[in-house]
Design goal:
26 strands, six-stranded mixed β-sheet, 747 residues, five-stranded parallel β-sheet, binds beta-D-glucopyranose, alpha/beta
Length: 747
Amino acid sequence: MHMKIKKKIALWLLCCCAFGQAAAQDREDISLNDKQSFISHLLEQMTLDEKIGQLHQCSGRGNFTGPDTLHLPLEEYVRQGKVGTMLNIIGIKEIRKYQSLALQSRLHIPLIFGLDIIHGYRTGFPIPLAEAASFDLAMMEEAARCNALEGAADGQNWTFAPMVDISWDARWGRVMEGAGEDPYLGSKVAEARVKGLQGEQLGDTCSMMACVKHFAGYGAPMSGKDYNSVDMSMGQFANFYMPPYQAAVEAGAATVMSAFNDFQSIPCTSNRFLLTELLRERWGFKGIVVSDYSSVEELINHRVAENRKDAAAQAFQAGLDIEMVSQCYLRHLKELVQEGKVKEEVIDQAVGRILEKKYELGLFHDPYRFCNEARSNRIINSSRIRNSSLRMAERSVVLLKNERQTLPFSDMIRTVALIGSLGKSQFDMAGAWAGSVDRSKIVTLYDALIQRGIKVIYQEGYDIRSGKISSLNASLQAAQQADAVIVCLGERAEQSGESKSKANLNLPEGQQLLVEELAKTGKPIVSLLMCGRPLIFNEVRRHSPAILCTWWLGSEAGNAICNVLWGKYNPSGKLPMTFPANMGQVPIFYQYKSTGRPTRPHVHYCTSYIDSSTEPAYPFGFGLSFTSFRYGKPEIIPSDHPDHAHAFLRINISNTGSRDGEEVVQLYVQDKVARITRPVKELKGFQKVFLKAGESKTVTFPITDETLGYYDNDMHFTVEKGEFIFMTGGSSHDTQEVTYFHPFSKI
Ligand code: BGC
């Protein structure tokens, strides 16, 4: 026998013996050499109860995102093989504890440990929406890589990320977790994040399984209320919401999570069309499908299931492998098999998929391979990770306004008035969904200013809870004594995220009034928006000469903001979501469809409001720089390789300012006449280019079927012959056009 194989078998036996149970007594020895035969051999030895145990996921104690599980005899369950995977077990010690219990079960099958590492395990990264604003795919891949590096170094195998739900509705608190409103950007970001998390291959101890969520349409709840019903046409789904899920699956995501909501009147958790027909049959997905927290049992609340047994039957038959937290499978699948309502061979397939991932993660070879304290100490909070967090944070900042060259600050600005407790709050800088992040290591803006030797006169200014002004006179005095004023506005971290829908996106009046009063001092004022979603802040827009959207930037927040304020990093972020001008406009997005009565200024019978403009405060793709860019006229270039691209669009871009900077060159398309109603414009390409002051570059975009096509109402991908208008520029509202004629259709 080959030495390596011999070694592996020896290891497997060693592991099993080491955990006190004589493997050979209960389970025949199985060669680890061949994945498929190992899994089928193991499956043959499993009882139905043991198989069902693999389909059950338990949550540890604490860090709940749903009803708690304190009452459960977790340890006993694990030891009896009633649990296949766990979530919310944090730290090597705890992971070892549960893994050793699992290895005491009859067949010694190891557990997989999962956690929501949404934007950082111990080192916080910007919230995903902020990262998306960077339009920097390589950087986002690196950020996800760092999240996986830290998580995997501390025993985690699986993160419930990326969330790739498209949303047009900032009332929905979970927009902070995704890449915003656009399906093209969303798809690219989804792909980058999956690659970053999973790395080269799953077996590496620096990689984690990704989980694409929430499948599907979770970002479109009616009225923006989290968990609410979703109702959309198939065409709408296929063109606007589906692409990022598909991109993530095609990038190799190991797992997919079903969404809480319903889709076309069937809850996603029991939606066979989504979980089997689309995901497995059409896209060829081979990985695991997991439910969301207790969502199998919630089929009863949806009123599609009579009881837990019915819920188990419906979810399982739809194609859902693992039930997270609730226990409908654990309690009822066996009965359903005995009654002939669920086939054991289908259970075998689901269990096979889970065992396969355990095998690929190398857990059968060494169940503790992710539990290495030395590695964990070396990697967590290491300089590579802090550095990447800083670079990611700088790139996530969006400059929304900069009048009178308020920014960047010169070196003459040595004393600043820092107003607003958000600038001093480690908790809030981490942002929402940062459960495992080490908040004590977060550099706030206050800390960073002090570290740079800036004299800081701090005032709370307004009460972050009530939103009312709390110290007007003291804030004005601070401003008078300072060279410049930095006002930190926005939301607390716990005001966005899951179950944090808002009916009012206006920045509290007190925050806005404070800016108005401070502006009267005539000092240079910069308003920083620290938030997890688009907000409305018209008074700030009016009175503050400079505004930066800094979101929640994570562990290096303060350093990143300082680097931008003093021009060490020239901001390059662009908004991944439209910022509304008022509540009535929400949901608002740039990619609306053509109507029979399009919006036209001063025309009465058209798509508009009588009491408001339809224009947003800031459009999708918008973001300024400390330098300026000039775009040349776009041109269409014929292709020599029609298999690769039908044609190319070429555009010249110049940095006309005096500073080096990056610009996100955006490409939008409008299908001039189509068989179904199509958006006025859709993003179909972007490139982030670095230009030295005075430098010019040519950017080229291929025009392919993907650039031109759409899904019809039967979900067939279609490309139509005819004219297409291409628009290029630095935002969705500021573009130059060129027409392309496409000579043939593809249906
Ligand atoms: C969320 C998921 C999350 C899960 C586990 C749920 O409430 O919707 O996104 O992964 O909890 O924490």
